[in-house]
Amino acid sequence: MKVLVVDDHAVVREGVAAVLRQLRPDTEVLLAHDAASGMALAAANPDLELVLLDLMLPDAVGMGALEAFGREHPALPVMVLSSSESPDAVRAALALGAMGYVAKSANPETLLAALRLVLSGEVYVPPFMVHAPTPPTPAGALTERQVDVLRLLADGIANKEIAYRLGLSEKTVKSHLTAIFRTLGVSNRAQAVAAAARYPMA
User: Fold this and answer.
1) With 137 labelled, which of 39, 165, 186, 199 sits at a CA distance of 20 to 30 A?
2) Residue 86's pLDDT is what?
């Protein structure tokens, strides 16, 4: 497994790299100190499986680095690692396609759990978002295709079968699931089904 860590603090980069190696001993960790070098490494390593990205980089403004990775490498999962625990920052990152958001104050066990979830194709939302004031969005806010995916999800259908039944690629199904999780304010399949059950779906 090959993972890219982009952070301007060497101590953070090395600490995250050590946690990643606990996940799988054969993990190859690439390190970048800014957005530009991170993008260059991503372009040179098409076999990357995940990017861990700090939002506060010297050569990027706001969510600029996250937007750049999403634009240049749309199929590459990106998990944000940030010192900010602002619910608005979490929502903004997820809205831009981040597959997870982990606060730097989190312990190694939390980071490992988040990594496992994201690598399995799901979205990790930090625990402090449970107490955030914005309630889950009704399922009516989902697109028609997302509702189709959610119905099959509720039936316990796997991604590959959902793709077959709806004439989609597995990658497209995963993209729909990411959008569904974000819209419903949940972090996994079970929570999505439970949240959708509270709202009528035409």
Assistant:
1) 165
2) 85
Task: Collect the ranges in the chain with pLDDT lower than 70.
Answer: 130-140, 196-202
Residues 79, 29 within the same domain: yes
Q: How many CB atoms lie within 10 A of CB 97?
A: 18
Look at residue 91 in the predicted model and tell me its pLDDT: 80
Gap between the Cα atoms of 88 and 94, Å rounded: 10
Query: At a CB cut-off of 8 Å and minimum separation 6, what does 33 contact?
Result: 6, 7, 8, 10, 13
- What is the pLDDT, as a whole number, of residue 198? 58
Q: What is the pLDDT of residue 130?
A: 61
Residue 202 lies in a domain: no
Kindly state the tokens that stand for 54.
């700090």
pTM of the model: 0.67
Same domain, 78 and 173: no
Domain that holds residue 163: 139-196
User: What strands lie across the sheet with 28-32, from one edge to the other?
Assistant: 28-32, 2-6, 50-53, 78-82, 100-103
